[in-house]
Amino acid sequence: AFLFSCFTGLRLGDIRNIRWRDIQKVGDDYRFSIIMQKTQDTITNKLNDDALRWLPVRKRRPDQPIFDLPVTATIEKTIAQWVHNAHITKHVTFHTARHSYATMALMAGADLYTISKLLGHRNIKTTTIYATVVDAERDKATDNISRVYQKRYEARQRT
Fold it and tell me: Cα angle vertex 140, ends 4, 155, to 5°?
């Protein structure tokens, strides 16, 4: 469920509520459509190949939850154990999966407006917190531009 959230951006409450009937094949794609627990807004998003890979074996009844999850405290303890076992020092919770999704989308070139819609944010200002995450990538891009021009300048100096 955590990894599914990493590839869908769904909150824990929405992961708990998603049912098999919420996933439909549309053309060649699979899409989910749910009413988000926090906002009561409906979102409909495509499931990418990675999200599909983390779905459990399908159950028979469309009204059954996709994930059978324990209480939140147990989930968070399990995640804490994974983090400890992986020697990760960052504080990680289930909600970190949602942040990972937004960050990966930014790194893949999605704009903030699109990410806002994918996450079901009502206000794009909520989404802007993810923009600071990619500051290092923007800095690297700026440095790379400088390197390109520096190489051209050096090549001209040699001729």
Answer: 140
Side chain identity at residue 9, one-letter code: G
Mean pLDDT of the chain: 90
Question: What residue spans of the chain are helical by DSSP H?
Answer: 2-6, 12-17, 49-53, 72-85, 95-107, 112-119, 124-127, 135-158
In the chain, the amino acid numbered 37 is: Q
Q: Measuring CA to CA, which residue among 54, 56, 91, 66 is closest to residue 76?
A: 91
The contacts found for 122-131 with CB under 8 angstroms, 24 or more apart, are: 122/39, 122/41, 127/102, 130/99, 130/102, 130/103, 130/106, 131/106
Pairing of strands 23-26, 29-35: antiparallel
Residue 64: its pLDDT value, please?
92
pLDDT of 86 > 90? The answer is: yes
Q: Is the pTM of this model over 0.70?
A: yes
pLDDT of residue 133: 67
Sign of CA dihedral 39, 40, 42, 45: positive
| Separation of alpha carbons 7 and 104, rounded Å | 9
Q: How far apart are CA 33 and CA 52, in angstroms?
A: 15
Alpha-carbon gap, residue 141 to 94, rounded angstroms: 31
